[in-house]
Amino acid sequence: MNNHFSESQLEAFLDESLPDEQMTAIEAALRDDSQLAQVLSEIIGRRDAGVHTLGAIWRSHRLSCPSREQLGSYLLDVLESEQRDFICFHLETIGCRYCNASLSDLREQHSATDAAASESRRHKYFQSSAGYLSRDD
Fold first, then answer.
1. Within a 13 Å sphere around the CA of 129, how many CA atoms are in the beta-carbon half?
2. Which of 14, 97, 52 is nearest to 6 (CA)?
3. What is the pLDDT, as a whole number, of residue 125?
4. Which of 4, 31, 56, 93 counts the highest number of beta carbons within 10 A?
5. What is the DSSP string of 85-131?
6. Dist. CA 6–CA 12, nearest whole Å
7. What is the reported pLDDT for 27?
8. Using CA atoms, how far apart are residues 34 and 74, in angstroms rounded to an integer?
9. Separation of alpha carbons 15 and 60, rounded Å
10. What CA dihedral angle connects 68, 73, 74 and 79, to 10 degrees?
11. pLDDT band at 8 (very low <50, low <70, confident <90, very high)
């Protein structure tokens, strides 16, 4: 095997839980390396037979992933430094696709909520000052 991918990386590849760059590299290597394809086939066979490693169970149940509530607290920057550092490591270094997608969703919800609140405030300000505006044109 010319490529040096560990079995845990290949397991993560099957779970689609690697960063995009690593997923692309493994996929490209699979096209050219029959030995790598054979190793991946063996991993799939073990999975189908019900044989799972501790690492595979850990990844499939995403035991190291922070909760959505913790990701929301991270987004609002209200976590203690140890938790913030772990989540930052999990998102940026590990590159967890699930958590990055969840964080992106939370950002969209947060910006939509901010926009709605801003529009509501703007409407209230206009309504409260409507009688004080003069028509000097």
1. 8
2. 14
3. 66
4. 56
5. HHHHIIIIII--HHHHHHHHHHHHHHHHHHHHHHHHHHHHHHHHHGG
6. 10
7. 94
8. 43
9. 7
10. -130
11. confident
Query: What residue segments make up the domains of the chain, in order of their start?
Result: 1-63, 64-110
CB of 29 closer than 8 Å to CB of 5: yes
Q: Which residue has the tokens 């019900």?
A: 50
Residues 6 or more apart whose Cβ sits within 8 Å of residue 62: 17, 96, 98
Residues 6+ apart with CB under 8 A from 98: 17, 62, 65
Tokens describing residue 114: 């901010």
**Tell me: the pLDDT tens digits for 27-82?**
999 999 999 999 999 999 988 888 777 877 777 788 889 999 999 999 999 999 99
Tokens 């976590």 found at: 79
Q: What are the pLDDT digits (tens) for 86-108? A: 999 999 988 888 899 999 999 99
How far apart are the C-alpha atoms of 126 and 137, rounded to whole Å? 19
